[in-house]
């Protein structure tokens, strides 16, 4: 299985040790561990007790509001995901050398039991790989789908090779956009490894706080988080930084996996037309092509990514709801939502930027 940086101890511990994902911020670690009779770890499920639904990217605020209007208590709940990280990856982690299915099935069943023991309203496992969903469904979890946009590298030798697969009008529009993004004397740097100094993190954190404060009200990640990943994951991180007049004015953080580049968030202290698209999307494609990575995952939602070569991909989540009435209502809702997601994905794929017969498929 390709390396997923968000499942590493370095990443998860940085979130907790930095004060980003803690009980104080509403992310109390309740990780589910499965051990054999001799105390050896056989499986694990990353899990948090939460008293809100922020930083998850699979939205259940409507469920919470409806349940509480009816007299129920939705929070606390259990959330099995990587905090603030809308990236699909293994959730039912198995440490056995043989068939992992018994361990995975036991973890899914154990999560239900943990929900009942804690007396919570629900347990949510988000950004689940498609191959794990049948295990959750057999255990009684509801299946939810959503949509992201990913760039698929079809073995391109350069960005121009990718552009050649687009319809002529789309290709010309992207070339104009990329030229316009840097025409105010802006240059772009890729920083990774030893480039990631504390001075660089100071600058990037200023971008994150400025843009995150305007977008979310309260940015999730602390300055210490960046220092910790800079120490522990230096070769797994790519900063795409935009420079003008001798100083950095914008940047995007990406994590480098075994076969994918994962774009996470960006920030800026100057506004320039199309700079966001250049730093977050076009440069990520350039890097993936240069390094031979199979795909770029550019975060949650965003139909504007379609015109830039990122195609719709279905994401999955599993939900166990302890209250029978709420479970029935949510199940009815999800049945229609899954149809809507499928139809929207088909429509967007049909109207993507690629020439007929050259649409990307993951």
TrEMBL record:
Domain of life of the source: Bacteria
Pfam families found in the cross-reference section: FemAB_like (PF04339)
InterPro entries, per database record: Acyl_CoA_acyltransferase (IPR016181), FemAB-like (IPR007434)
Region (Disordered): 342-362
Entry-linked PANTHER family: ACYL-COA (PTHR47017:SF1)
Name this protein carries in UniProt: GNAT family N-acetyltransferase
């Amino acid at each position: 299985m390709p390396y997923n940086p968000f499942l590493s101890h370095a990443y998860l511990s940085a979130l907790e040790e930095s004060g980003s994902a803690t009980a104080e911020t509403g992310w109390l670690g309740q990780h589910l561990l499965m051990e054999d009779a001799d105390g050896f770890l056989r499986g694990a499920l990353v899990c948090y007790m939460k008293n809100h639904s922020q930083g998850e990217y699979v939205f259940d605020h409507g469920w919470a509001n409806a349940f509480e209007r009816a007299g129920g208590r939705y929070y606390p709940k259990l959330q099995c995901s990587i905090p603030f990280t809308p990236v699909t990856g293994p959730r039912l982690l198995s440490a056995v050398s043989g068939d992992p299915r018994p361990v995975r099935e036991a973890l899914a069943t154990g999560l239900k039991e943990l929900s009942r023991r804690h007396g919570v309203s629900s347990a949510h496992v988000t950004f689940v790989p498609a191959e794990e969903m049948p295990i959750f469904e057999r255990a009684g979890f509801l299946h939810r789908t959503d949509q992201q946009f990913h760039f698929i590298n079809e073995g391109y030798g350069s960005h121009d090779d990718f552009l050649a697969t687009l319809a002529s009008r789309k290709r010309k529009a992207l070339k104009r956009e990329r030229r316009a993004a840097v025409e105010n004397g802006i240059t772009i740097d890729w920083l990774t490894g030893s480039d990631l100094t504390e001075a660089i993190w100071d600058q990037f954190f200023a971008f994150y706080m400025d843009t995150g404060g305007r977008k979310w009200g309260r940015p999730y990640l602390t300055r210490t988080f960046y220092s910790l990943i800079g120490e522990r994951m230096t070769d797994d991180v790519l900063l795409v930084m935009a420079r003008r007049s001798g100083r950095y004015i914008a940047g995007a953080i990406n994590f480098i996996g075994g076969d994918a580049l994962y774009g996470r968030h960006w920030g800026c202290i100057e506004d320039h037309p199309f700079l966001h698209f250049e730093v977050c999307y076009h440069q990520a494609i350039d890097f993936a092509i240069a390094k031979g990575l199979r795909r770029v995952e550019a975060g949650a939602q965003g139909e504007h990514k379609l015109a830039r070569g990122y195609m719709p991909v279905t994401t999955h989540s599993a939900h166990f709801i302890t209250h029978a009435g709420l479970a029935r209502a949510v199940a009815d809702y999800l049945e229609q939502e899954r149809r809507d997601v499928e139809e929207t994905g088909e429509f967007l794929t049909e109207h993507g930027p690629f020439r007929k017969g050259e649409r990307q498929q993951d």
